[in-house]
UniProtKB/TrEMBL annotation:
Protein name: Bifunctional NAD(P)H-hydrate repair enzyme
Pfam families in alphabetical order: Carb_kinase, YjeF_N
Binding-site positions, K(+): N59, D120, S156
Residues holding AMP: K387, G388, S389, T390, T391, G417
Amino acid sequence: MRTAYSVETVRAAERTLMARLPDGALMQRAAAGLAAACAQLLGRVYGSRVVLLVGSGDNGGDALWAGARLARRGAAVTAVLLAPGRAHPGGLAALRRAGGVTVPAADGVPLVERADLVLDGIVGIGGTGGLRAEAVPLAEAAHRSRAAVVAVDLPSGVDADTGQVRGAAVRADLTVTFGTHKPALFVDPAREHAGSVRLVDIGLELPAGPFLEALQHADVARLLPVPAAESDKYRRGVVGIAAGSARYPGAAVLAVSGALRGGAGAVRYVGPAADAVIARYPETLVSDQGPKKAGRVQAWVVGPGAGDDARTVAQVLALDVPVLVDADGLRLAPARDVRRRTAPTLMTPHAGEAAALLGVGRDEVEGARLDAVRELAGRYRATVLLKGSTTLVAGPDGGPVRANATGTPWLATAGSGDVLSGLAGSLLAAGLPALDAASAGAYVHGLAGRFAARHAPAGAHDIADAIPRAWRDVREAGVG
Ligand SMILES: NC(=O)C1=CN([C@@H]2O[C@H](COP(=O)(O)OP(=O)(O)OC[C@H]3O[C@@H](n4cnc5c(N)ncnc54)[C@H](O)[C@@H]3O)[C@@H](O)[C@H]2O)[C@@H](O)CC1
Ligand SMILES: Nc1ncnc2c1ncn2[C@@H]1O[C@H](COP(=O)(O)OP(=O)(O)O)[C@@H](O)[C@H]1O
Ligand SMILES: [K+]
């Protein structure tokens, strides 16, 4: 599991550690890791042209000390000072001792354009708002140039705690972050600015409860249900799908396709698309009795392609088993009915649906996903999975939010959300708590999307077909 901590927690851990260490020791650790990552990226340090973008704080200090190390190995290093007079004095002296030179910001653009490597030390966790005006042309030149751009701790201009980007921000190929990941490195739009991310251990001791966590193969492998020797289909869990309409029968088929690959022992379907479902998946148990009388079901999925069928949504919400509410179901589920439930509820909106529930614009949700997912989870007292370029899952009682790391923009294809709802619903029926069902479901779904769209676009049914491969990949890598 990868974890991220808020700026406040990082600062507190840093204070504790600094009290035990000689002055400047932490910055040396950071700079050593940073210089090593840069050297690796460059391949040949000797003779390379390195430009440091240096702001007024310790982030600039890290860049200067790392620049000094590269200069000692034969790189031509120039520091562009964005706040001359306020650049880190120790770092500046070290760079100059190593043969590096400094120039004011106004002279920086041509140097950046000719560089092999640009180090972004403008701001780190001390940054507020987007890049200041004088830094913008430098960031743009770095993006345009053929130089590799390495962000120090964070891409400058992004908000460390929320992943918001208010204004211009650096776009990096690699971010070298210190002590712990920061939330912005997992959450779009900031994450997209970070490139690949490398964590340098500087010895920070962090508390048990992170701010954000991102599951990896081994974590998901532990969550995925495996039938025991004495299992039968009922013990493995039965998932009920109440989805589809005369107008959208495909949503029912796709939700069932995800559910069949999600680990439950059986899939029950109720709704007007039974013929279409059976034609494609004859193993589905179809009932025409409505959710209440459909027979044993350990978890329900309601909403995909449901149109205006508020009655079915209300019936499902009244059942005392875990319920996943998606798509049209979100609009049709009154907040008070969701809050009243004692069994877990998992809601799976995309940004547009989340915006409608919150009464804000879609851009607002996409710009501040962490806030949106937390707000919804609190309002509905439910677990909420917010879909999109970064999928986030928040539980109703606070605690760390989970960010999914396996997604791919290829998933943005009609019907892929229906597949996810079936898959996550099946995991609920198999007995996973809502937070785990949602995050393991998103993880496997994202991976399936990557497999399905390896060298070509894929449809939602291809993503469903790739779920077994994704599942196997997780199990084999995670538990051997
Ligand atoms: N906290 C830690 O544990 C460690 C921190 N280190 C480095 O120290 C950094 C934090 O240093 P600081 O606290 O000095 O803060 P920063 O270097 O992030 O920012 C310093 C100053 O930049 C100015 N500023 C704020 N927003 C700006 C913007 N949008 N554009 C331009 N200037 C802006 C402000 O005057 C602010 O005080 C970390 O990101 C990391 O790189 C490392 O040296 C090692 C350990
Ligand atoms: N840009 C993107 N990058 C990664 N994943 C995305 C992106 N856009 C959408 N997705 C994913 O694709 C799926 C689409 O679901 P949804 O929006 O409900 O579509 P539909 O209703 O057509 O099924 C979700 O899993 C979502 O997280
Ligand atoms: K930075």
